[in-house]
Amino acid sequence: EIVLTQSPGTLSLSPGERATLSCRASQSLSNNYLAWYQQKPGQAPRVLIYSASTRGNGIPDRFSGSGSGTDFTLTISRLKPEDFAVYYCQQYGNSPPYTFGQGTKLEIK
Amino acid sequence: QVTLQESGPVLVKPTETLTLTCTVSGFSLSDPMVGVSWIRQPPGKALHWLAHIFSSDERSYNTSLRSRLTISKDTSKSQVVLTMTNMDPVDTGTYYCARISRIAYDNDHWGQGTLVTVSS
User: Fold this and answer.
1) In terms of CA atoms, which chain B residue is nearest residue A87?
2) Which of A30, A4, A97 has its CA nearest to residue B52?
3) Per-residue pLDDT at A93
4) Is the peptide bond before A96 cis (omega within 30 degrees of 0)?
5) Are A47 and B105 in contact (CB < 8 Å)?
6) pLDDT range class, residue B55, cuts 50, 70, 90
7) Which residues pair with B34 in a beta bridge?
8) Contact call for residues A83 and A19 (beta carbons, < 8 A)
9) How many CB pairs under 8 A join A and B?
10) Is residue B15 predicted with pLDDT exceeding 90?
11) Is B14 helix (H, G, I), strand (E, B) or coil?
12) What pLDDT is stored for residue B74 in this prediction?
């Protein structure tokens, strides 16, 4: 089973600042099927990034994804108030289970 | 417009079997490029992938829950059904269905989720 470890667990920043979230896989994702999701309280998650670096439909360009193999990063270039939420990464490697990370909570400082 | 809607019981007793239905619209379950996933989230905790199914009837299950899970689909009704046997209080949580794209294996549309509580 591929374990995804997200860091930090909680990130405290102010609007306008840059956020860098990490997702590390216990095994290499040779297909780079790594997605990032944003979840706000009481809502379903929504996809931000798929295939490690491709923005989902309608996702603002302040969100970007990078990485390959075992190390992946989600960057939010200039935080807006609506970006404060919990972020999850998920991998679709070669075999199930297709695990999620434990999440990073992005909170207002 | 793609939508997914979960339905099922809000309360089940320990040892009972949970049956959840995901009714989809805006796409067809016969489309070879998409499928449906089930994902759950215990209160205050992280997302947990359970299973998925594609049009070809290709199914995958979370290995730790494989003996308890069954996923199936009725294409004519646009429904995907998940059953989970021998429910336990630790299975309490919000259960989501989501469309999965074969292009990049991301869950690009989600239902709003249904909260299931396991209690006697």
Assistant:
1) B46
2) A97
3) 83
4) no
5) no
6) very high
7) B101
8) yes
9) 69
10) yes
11) coil
12) 96
The alpha-carbon radius of gyration of chain A (Å, integer) is: 13
Given an 8 Å threshold on Cβ–Cβ distance, is A37 in contact with B107? Answer: yes
pLDDT band, residue B27 (cuts 50/70/90): very high
Q: Which residues of B touch A1 (CB under 8 A)?
A: 63
Q: Given A47, A54, A57, which is nearest B107 (Cβ)?
A: A47
Nearest residue of B to residue A58, measured between CA atoms = B108
Q: Render pLDDT for A36-95 as a digit per residue (tens, 0 to 9).
A: 999 999 999 999 999 999 999 999 999 999 999 999 999 999 999 999 999 999 999 888
Q: CA-CA distance, B87 to A99, in Å (whole number)?
A: 21
What is the number of other CB atoms lying within 10 angstroms of the CB of residue A107? 12
Which DSSP state fits A37?
A: E
* Distances from the Cα of A44 to the Cα of B18, B28, B30, B46, angstroms: 21, 22, 25, 12
User: pLDDT-derived band of residue A30, with 50, 70 and 90 as boundaries?
Assistant: confident
Residue A42 identity (one-letter amino acid): G
Q: Which residues of A make CB contacts under 8 Å with B?
A: 1, 33, 35, 37, 39, 43-47, 50-51, 54, 56-57, 88, 90, 92, 96-103
